[in-house]
Amino acid sequence: FNKRGATDLQAADQETTGVYLEVNHPLTPRIMGELTGMLLDSNINGGGDGVDDMDETIGLFGINLAYSVSEWVVAEIGYNFDELDSDITRTERDFDRNRVYVGLRAEF
Predict the structure, then answer these.
(1) Helix, strand or coil, per DSSP, at residue 57
(2) 12: buried, middle or exposed (CB in 10 Å: 19+, 13-18, 0-12)?
(3) Which of 25, 38, 51, 75 is surrounded by the fewest CB atoms within 10 Å?
(4) pLDDT, tens digit (0-9, with 9 covering 90-100), for 72-96
(5) Exposed/middle/buried for 6, CB within 10 Å: 0-12, 13-18, 19+?
(6) Following DSSP, what letter does each residue of 15-54 receive, concatenated?
(7) Are strands 73-86 and 95-106 parallel, antiparallel or unpaired?
(8) Within 10 Å of residue 42's Cβ, how many Cβ atoms?
(9) How many CB atoms lie within 10 A of CB 9?
(10) Reading across the β-sheet that carries 2-6, which strands appear in turn?
(11) Confidence at residue 67, expressed as pLDDT on a 0 to 100 scale
(12) pTM check: above 0.85
């Protein structure tokens, strides 16, 4: 996809091109595996702080396992990795983030 949208930078917007992939696969009759990935490449337009025509790239990747406890209850565990690479160095925007989660979901 390609779209223009808002940004958190002063008086700027951004044009973003991205791809998204999600793969779900049953590992057993009760366990579902899921891989997700998204890559977004943005070009900053305008901005009063010298950020015009700078680029930012963010990658979001995850793995999830879901276990069907019953017809309506699912237990989940997963891991997500997020990384932002930005040309804007004065704000120290670059980051890597690791998230692990465990949960219980009721479906009706």
Answers:
(1) strand
(2) middle
(3) 25
(4) 999 999 999 999 998 887 677 899 9
(5) exposed
(6) EEEEEEEEEEEESSSSEEEEEEEEEEEEEEEE-TTS-TT-
(7) antiparallel
(8) 20
(9) 21
(10) 2-6, 12-26, 31-46, 55-68, 73-86, 95-106
(11) 98
(12) no
